[in-house]
Amino acid sequence: MSISDSDSSSHVGESKTFRQITRDRLLYEMLRSTKTKESKSTWKVLIMDKVTVKIMSYACKMADITEEGVSLVEDLYKRRQPLPSMDAIYFIQPTRENIVMFMSDMSGRSPLYKKAFVFFSSSAQKELVAPIRRDASVMGRLCALSEMNLEYFAIDSQGFVTDHERALEELFGENAEMSQNYNTCINTMATRISTVFASLREFPYVRYRAAKTIDASTLMTLRDLIPTKLAAAVWNYLSKHKSSIADFPQTETCELLIVDRSIDQIAPIIHEWTYDAMCHDLLLMDGNKYVHEVPGKNGSSTEKKEVLLEEHDPVWLELRHAHIGEASEKLHDKMTNFMSKNKAAQIHGRGGGELSTRDLQKIVQALPQYSDQIDKLSLHVEIAGKINNMIREQRLRDIGDLEQDLVFGKAGTTELINFFRTNHNTSRENKLRILMIYAALYPEKFESDKGNKLMQLAGISDDDMIAVNNMRCLMAAQDTKKSSSGFKKLTFEMHKKKPTIREEREGEEQKKWTQFRFYPIMEDLLEKLSKGNLPREEYPCMNDPSPSFHSTPVSTPLRNTNSAPHVPAVSVRSRRGGTWARPRNSDDGYSSDSVLRHASSDFRKMGQRIFVFIIGGATRSELRVVHKLSSKLQREIILGSSSLDDPHTFITKIKMLSQDISLEDLQI
């Protein structure tokens, strides 16, 4: 079983990111704790299920795990070789099936391993653990039975998912209200969210988007109540943590806002023009994996190489949230700067003479960091070049301008019709995305034949038409009339209302790049929440905060009443530094320039954390917003969601909302 080498390196003496705290808990609180006097073996076997192996792979490198004395990683459900002289570490979910497998491994006269350390990813019910305690042979071999309360997937230094890829379908689909998956999805999501707070030792004020009623003819349904139900379930688990977890806060230390995808249907499908978003949108990457061709060992043929675009790469760290145009410019400057400076240094070292192949080999061997730097710079130059070619070939600038003009009310039906009539070569997916944006803004336009004619003019397929209609259904979760049967169905008859047009924001980036005007609604919500201006009737609180909670100015760190005077209120876990790395020189054209520009004075002095959770999938633009606002608001913001979706994935999920559509039916 392989564990991906994702970035999670920790720096001694520094404040730690959300992902680093997760990593440290897994490596030190769990793996290192097994190095006891009872355990005689130096090396151990680590056994995980399909969920916990993903948790581990998002946070740790395989080298990190090996360093903590793990020589072998195994799958709980695969046939394993008996290793009776070795101890085993079980990191598993507390399910009946997993405990049965564990008992099978460790009970009887011939156990697979000598001793066992068991760590559950979330709280275990007493009746599930009872069989272990009743079996004398197992108890004699058990060195630890503990709840880690860590069942989330740290995808970023400020982001996590609960790995519910089908949440949109299971919670918002046509038959969601009658499905058994509805409550299961809510409860599992709540369990995993609660383990985030258990890991960070944070106790939040839980706020959520309230269900709205239009008038007496509307009927509130389970779909309207999704954020309310999730907030209640999370609050229930947090209340239990207060009494069951040592040093868990007894008073509120942070804020949590729970919303669903209906707050902003445009963010998942509009073309987001940052380097990060363009990579995932246009290159169809597998998660953060990018595959490119490099020269083979024999020098003639090429071979495929897989790289991870993650935070351990300083070039990626700097450029990921920059407009693709700015990223391309910076990459060109960095490459030019790097080559000129290092070439000059090399020539100077030889007195100005030409460098032979042997000399170059010696330089690379003596300074291996140069090879790594040129490889990374070349990689990003290649990626940016490929993206820019696709932008030109697909005429994405014209598409992007139309999308943004629609969002900000500067274009309407006339401009849309003209675009479809004059741009026949536009891809089917791009035309679909424009129509989905238009349907979210002007749902009433699709109540009659006008919508069908517009879709026919665009030339989209039948299942694409389903996506457009379902887009309006998602938005209509709160605005749909009651059917004659008393149940609210996915219907297209909605109250006419003015479209929600975003107000344009002025800034240097917006002036320089016309496609950089869009911002997700989440940005407004987080700014209002931080300032205490989020409307209570729209976003109530499960645990009403005291009047003084929002009275402290944002610029002043909030205090813990149990602490000594002038000590900022922080969680028990280590407070992290900023998303941006520690100050470092950037003259080599490789290190992150934005590190210096965005470095905060000291993130340990920031106010209380803000957590926001989006049911139904988050976007790259929303992840960008939490990084940006953490610096602006001087509060660390952590984004959680059921999944992190790229446009192609989100469109597929929207199509799945219809009852009669299966994955096999879709044109993907």
UniProtKB/TrEMBL annotation:
Gene3D superfamilies: 1.25.40.60, 3.40.50.1910, 3.40.50.2060, Syntaxin Binding Protein 1, Chain A, domain 2 (3.90.830.10)
Location of the region described as Disordered in the Swiss-Prot/TrEMBL record: 543-593
InterPro entries named among the record's database cross-references: Sec-1-like_dom1, Sec-1-like_dom3a, Sec1-like, Sec1-like_dom2, Sec1-like_sf
GO biological process: vesicle-mediated transport
Protein name: SNARE-interacting protein KEULE
Ranges of compositional bias, category Polar residues: 545-564
Family assignment from sequence similarity: Belongs to the STXBP/unc-18/SEC1 family.
